[in-house]
């Protein structure tokens, strides 16, 4: 399950650089800000007769700070930490991890701000 191993590697990497927790399943008593691993999309990326996978990892940032400042700071830290790096995986090899994009917005509740970060990885299972 290389995409799960990649998720673990990304969470470990981000836990080391962020000042807020990273969750797969947000606890009921979670305090803002935090980052959530929302989803991933795995595609076949065969190259030169060697099987690889392209994995798009989608993260959400949640903050109750007034305005987008905190969300943008967290997104920038994620960008810096993940740009063209190869975090160690328990199984398989991450050949490349890079930051693709970020969007920020005010949540429909009118007080919470969110950010959506997309990471792209190439892994060899």
Automatic annotation (TrEMBL):
InterPro entries: Gp17-like, Viral_Tail_Comp_sf. Gene3D superfamilies: 3.30.2000.30. This is DUF3168 domain-containing protein. It comes from Thalassospira xiamenensis. The lineage of its organism: Bacteria, Pseudomonadati, Pseudomonadota, Alphaproteobacteria, Rhodospirillales.
């Amino acid at each position: 399950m290389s995409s799960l191993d990649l998720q673990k590697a990304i969470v470990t990497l981000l836990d080391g650089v962020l000042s807020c927790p990273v969750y797969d399943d947000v606890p009921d008593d979670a305090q803002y800000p935090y980052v959530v691993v929302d989803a991933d999309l795995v595609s076949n990326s065969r190259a030169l007769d060697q099987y690889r996978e392209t994995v798009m990892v989608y993260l959400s940032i949640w903050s109750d700070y007034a305005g987008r400042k905190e969300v943008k700071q967290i997104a920038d830290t994620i960008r810096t930490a993940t740009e063209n790096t190869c975090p160690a995986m328990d199984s398989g090899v991450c050949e490349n991890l890079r930051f693709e994009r970020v969007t920020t917005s005010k949540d429909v509740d009118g007080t919470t701000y969110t950010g959506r970060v997309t990471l792209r990885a190439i892994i060899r299972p």
